[in-house]
From TrEMBL, chain A:
GO terms for cellular component: plasma membrane. The chain crosses the membrane at residues 23-49, 79-99, 111-134, 154-177, 206-227, 261-282, 308-337, 366-388, 400-418, 424-444, 483-503, 540-561. Keywords: Cell inner membrane, Cell membrane, Membrane, Transmembrane, Transmembrane helix, Transport. SUPFAM superfamilies: MetI-like. This is ABC transporter permease. It comes from the Bacteria. Gene3D superfamilies: MetI-like (1.10.3720.10). InterPro entries: MetI-like (IPR000515), MetI-like_sf (IPR035906). GO terms for biological process: transmembrane transport. PROSITE patterns: ABC_TM1 (PS50928). It is a multi-pass membrane protein. It comes from Rhodoplanes roseus. Coiled coil: none annotated. Residues 75-278, 362-557 form the ABC transmembrane type-1 domain.
Automatic annotation (TrEMBL), chain B:
Residues 1-20 form the signal peptide. This is ABC transporter substrate-binding protein. Keywords: Signal. It comes from Rhodoplanes roseus. It holds the Pfam family SBP_bac_6. Gene3D superfamilies: Periplasmic binding protein-like II (3.40.190.10). It comes from the Bacteria. PANTHER family: SLL0237 PROTEIN, THIAMINE-BINDING PERIPLASMIC PROTEIN-RELATED.
Length: 582, 438
């Protein structure tokens, strides 16, 4: 790939030596990761390295892993599914991102919000809704069977996993790529246009390469997430993948088997390698651009026909990816829905049933998820800054450790937290019984999302802006506060939304840590309902409430971004370039 | 950063304050759904005024792990769940406290199964039986006949329509498998199980996955515990349920956790569950479990199954808990390696056998018939005998026992390889038979 590079000296760094302040921040972050991730997880996972019977250190369990056909097959299945999902997710995310950021497209914020919703699939009830719509006896296949006597196996085997995961996780690419496209220096595009480039070529050679950090951040998250996701394979009854194997082994009673933890360790190692690989692929290239405040890429106006095509594409993609949510809504309003394309009847009774309980769940969810999102953005931005802008020895380890969290099964985090924090006394009660521990668990588990978003945003910013500020006499702290943070605010927001939204429907770790109904978040309430036939409707109603809640928060954030964007670009209206084909 | 820490500190302080002024409460960890816990909570708080029941809902495995991890500073009074083996695990780890109930009128056994732990660590408060549940719309669309017996599910017509929960993930399914093995013997029992399993559409990873799939029509027939079938009917789903003539009735249990912070409250809860009032709550349509007090059935609706009167419910099978206990992990691992993780291969072999049978029905051929029988034997073959399954060398691999021996992963890989090879040979033989019969 040839890249148009704006600044000649790649990897220019402003800091020649680490300052005491940087050391302090790095140590604080390391301490946090140690307490909130490494130690709790270590107390559980060390079993992987012990010999049966004696408890001595050994690697024989890993030899067993490599010798077991099922696990070797699972590993390849997981890798393949993750790669194919990235391809599918790109196909879904790219058009949406480009149309909403490169063109003057009304409803961009709405599309961005709707395109983000698939990420929020409430546990259990989302699975039921997917099956009722796409499954073997789902709406589509029942209708197809009636009309044409054919069946499309959307939800069968590994291909089914790729389909569902692609629909589920493509927002990671959408949100990070959109942010990156918004922050590209307009002068790059103009320069290319002056030299005669336009249309697809302009996009392929200039625009997309410059947005690469955002794309890679999103794609690597999709890859790692698919790798580590167990809900979807279990929903599709695919058991020969790594994450479900780990989960099935760890959560069975009475089996003191190290293999579950061995698989967890392998998951962590492979996930971190994927991230390292993605960093290596981008090494030696500089994506930073200098111009800021110009509002990024010029937005072209669409001609009527183009408008039609754009709307067609957007509608088609949204219909596909939002079908599960439509099914969820229908499920929450259905009396009985069983082996039929549509429910037998509709009712509001399920909402009435959850009305009393849900207010406490909603408050808790908002509190936990926003606190977790906040912690994640602060930590994510700090780690990204330390890695990209300083020369602290071992700074990469902060990044890798934080990223490892994405691969640790939630139930391992839950058990580890109980082990580590239950013995600590706070005002007469064990620390692990306080809800703040749930926030901590959520924050650690969602940190990778915010971290990748902040990292990508910072990569796109030229260090010369900071140098300029320092040359004018600003201190490091003031530079960060007045220059760096405002410039990467888009990435930080993207990170916050990703962390916040996914934390609000997290269950695995929460289920281990919730102490009472009054401390429980929505996902827990949903779980409780979804254990009985009569609870399916109310569970779906809670699921819809969760989705709507997160959607509103996301939409508000997008409005803020749009407004800020417009304010920045006011007075610098970009030249419209009619004639180029989109 | 500092400001945030201050906020967090404040939050911590306020959370502690709330915790301190809670009223007298009884904390129970349970796997039961809201449909069960809500009515019981209401009735209990009415019967024992001034006490609140704090329900912590966790699945059985998470519940056991939770009680285990928090034993040093236990905050839980009771463990309340279906699977008897979960209570055995807790008891084995010294996490349950002994208690002598004052309730009267409850017999020693329900069906063949003892209601209470003989040593007094946990108590059966309700019973449930295993059976077959099916979706009537699905059955009509796919022209499935109504199943009556376990052996029906092995018929070719049910191919790809049946589901079960993995015994390693569902204590009650484990008991069903164990009952079959004890009722028919090790080899014959596994043969029946694998013949049924050849028709499986899914082996779900949680008990509720089966009724959920039947309710929404993802598969037609499920092997489930009775209250899933009955409560689904009560919720309006087009499903039916039947007890086969050989079934187990297993008690759902409650036990006091060691060092319960509110021991008196815990005892009150057990006494309530076993009292007339507590037993009557079980008859509610959304709960629909079998009371352990025979007198309560007088208040039940007319067609309510009564295991104390109906001999087909459970008493035909002699169940030996010691045999079950000893080999429980081995049976689970065998099922996973031979069925759950080999389902595609097992189904391929089964399909080939069904096709050969169909061909033979049209045109008989002695040589082909012999080949099909060989294929059947290959599918039914077991990598370990009953004696080997209960031997300490085998069971030790699964318990993290102190002595050195085979590791679980080694055994599992060996069994998986055995199953894969046998299923492949069976498929080849059955296909050969089909060719001969044509």
């Amino acid at each position: 790939m040839t890249l148009a590079l704006p600044t000649a000296p790649a990897r220019a760094r402003s800091a020649s030596a680490a300052t005491p302040g940087q050391w302090a921040v790095a140590i604080a972050i390391a301490a946090f990761l140690l307490v909130a991730l490494v130690i709790p997880v270590g107390t559980v996972v060390y079993v992987a390295f012990t010999e049966k019977g004696t408890g001595d250190f050994t690697l024989v369990n890993f030899v067993d892993f490599a010798r077991t056909d099922l696990l070797v097959r699972s590993t390849w299945n997981s890798i393949w599914a993750a790669m194919m999902t990235v391809v599918l997710a790109t196909a879904l995310a790219l058009p949406l991102a480009v149309i909403t950021t490169r063109y003057d497209f009304r409803g961009a914020a709405l599309v961005q919000t709707l395109g983000f919703l698939p990420l929020i699939m409430p546990p259990f009830v989302g699975a039921v809704a997917m099956q009722l719509f796409f499954g073997r006896s789902g709406t589509i296949n029942l209708l197809l069977g009636d009309w044409f006597d054919v069946e499309i196996p959307f939800m069968e085997g590994i291909n089914g996993v790729v389909f569902v995961e692609g629909v589920h996780y493509f927002p990671f690419i959408l949100i990070n790529l959109s942010t990156a496209l918004r922050t590209i220096d307009r002068s790059m595009e103009e320069a290319a246009q002056n030299l005669g480039s336009s249309g697809l070529r302009l996009f392929r050679r200039i625009v997309f390469p410059l947005a690469m950090p955002g794309y890679v951040a999103g794609a690597s998250l999709v890859f790692v997430k698919v790798f580590d996701d167990l809900a979807t394979p279990l929903l599709l009854n695919v058991k020969d993948m790594l994450a479900p194997q780990a989960y099935l082994r760890i959560t069975s009673i009475g089996i003191a088997d190290p293999m579950g933890y061995v698989i967890s360790v392998v998951l962590v190692l492979l996930s971190v390698s994927a991230i390292v690989l993605s960093m290596l692929a981008m090494r030696g290239r500089d994506y930073a651009t200098v111009q800021r405040g110009g509002g990024g890429l010029a937005r072209r106006a669409l001609r009527p026909l183009e408008h039609l095509v754009a709307w067609g594409v957007v509608t088609l993609i949204l219909m596909l990816v939002l079908a599960p949510h439509a099914a969820l809504l229908m499920l929450s309003l259905a009396t009985v829905w069983s082996y039929s394309p549509l429910p037998d009847g509709f009712t509001l009774a399920h909402y009435a049933r959850v009305f009393g309980d849900s207010s406490v769940y909603i408050t808790n969810t908002l509190l936990y998820a926003s606190l977790a999102g906040l912690i994640d953005v602060v930590l994510g931005a700090a780690i990204a800054y330390l890695v990209l802008r300083t020369r602290l020895p071992g700074r990469q380890w902060l990044d890798w450790t934080a990223m490892a969290a994405v691969a640790v099964p939630g139930v391992v985090v839950g058990i580890g937290y109980l082990r580590t924090f239950y013995g600590i006394d706070v005002g007469g009660v064990p620390l692990a019984t306080l809800w703040i521990v749930i926030v901590l668990a959520l924050a650690v588990r969602r940190l990778p999302y915010a971290l990748r978003a902040c990292y990508a945003a910072l990569q796109q910013i030229s260090v010369s802006l900071e140098e300029a500020a320092e040359n004018l006499g600003a201190t490091k702290t003031r530079t960060i506060r007045r220059v760096v943070v405002p410039l990467i605010s888009g990435g930080m927001l993207a990170g916050f939304i990703s962390s916040f939204a996914t934390a609000s429907v997290e269950l695995a770790a929460t289920l281990m840590l919730v102490q009472s109904n009054s401390d429980a978040p929505l996902a827990y309430g949903l779980y409780v309902f979804m254990q009985s036939p009569a609870g399916r409707g109310p569970g779906a109603a809670l699921g819809v409430i969760a989705v709507v809640l997160v959607a509103i928060c996301t939409f508000l954030s997008h409005l803020v971004v749009e407004r800020q964007h417009r304010r920045q670009s006011r007075g610098a209206a970009g030249p419209a370039v009619p004639g180029a084909t989109g | 950063m500092l400001r945030m820490l201050a906020v967090l500190g404040l939050c911590l302080a306020s959370a502690t304050a709330v915790q301190a002024q809670a009223p007298a409460r009884v904390t129970v960890v349970t796997s039961f759904s809201k449909d069960v816990t809500d009515p019981v909570k209401k009735a209990f708080e009415q019967a024992v005024p001034g006490v609140t029941l704090e329900v912590q809902n966790r699945n059985t495995n998470a519940g056991v792990k939770y009680v285990e991890e928090t034993r040093a500073r236990n905050q839980v009074d009771l463990f309340w769940a279906s699977a008897p083996d979960a209570f055995e695990v807790l008891k084995g780890k010294g996490l349950l406290a002994k208690y002598q109930t004052k309730a009267t009128g409850i017999p020693d056994k329900i069906g063949a199964f003892p209601i209470n732990d003989p040593e007094g660590y946990y108590f059966g408060f309700a019973a449930s039986g295993y059976g077959i549940m099916w979706n009537t719309r699905y059955a009509r669309a796919n022209k499935l006949p109504d199943p009556k017996e376990w052996s029906d599910l092995a018929k070719p017509i049910y191919f790809d329509h049946v589901a079960i929960a993995a015994p390693s993930r569902s204590g009650t399914t484990h008991l069903t498998v164990e009952t079959l093995l004890q009722g028919e013997g090790w080899d014959k029992g596994w043969r029946t199980i694998k013949e049924m399993a050849g028709n499986f559409r899914q082996v779900t990873e949680r008990s509720f996955g089966v009724p959920e799939g039947v309710n929404s029509g993802q598969f037609g027939v499920g092997i489930v515990i009775d209250f899933f079938g009955f409560s689904a009917q009560a919720a309006g789903f087009p499903v039916k349920f039947v007890y086969p003539s050989v079934t187990t009735i297993v008690p759902a249990n409650v036990g006091i956790v060691t060092n319960a912070p509110n021991r008196a409250g815990a005892e009150a809860f057990i006494e309530f569950l076993l009292s007339d009032k507590g037993q009557e709550v079980l008859l509610e349509p959304a709960i629909r479990r079998l009371p352990v007090n025979p007198a309560t059935y007088a208040k039940a609706p007319a067609d309510y199954p009564n295991p104390f009167k109906d001999p087909s419910l459970g008493s035909r099978v002699k169940f030996d808990p010691d045999v079950s206990e000893k080999r429980s992990n081995v049976v689970d691992a065998l099922f996973d390696q031979l069925v759950t993780f080999q389902l595609a291969n097992l189904k391929a072999a089964t399909k080939a056998i069904h096709e050969a049978d169909a061909a033979l029905a049209k045109k008989d051929n002695a040589q082909a018939r012999a080949l099909v029988n060989e294929a059947r034997d290959l599918v039914a073959a077991m990598p370990v005998t009953a004696a080997e399954a209960a031997a300490p060398e085998t069971t030790g691999a699964f318990t993290g026992a102190k002595e050195k021996g085979s590791r679980q992963a080694e055994l599992e890989n060996r069994w998986a390889g055995f199953a894969r090879d046998h299923y492949a040979q069976a498929k080849a033989k059955a296909e050969e038979a089909t060719r001969l019969a044509k």
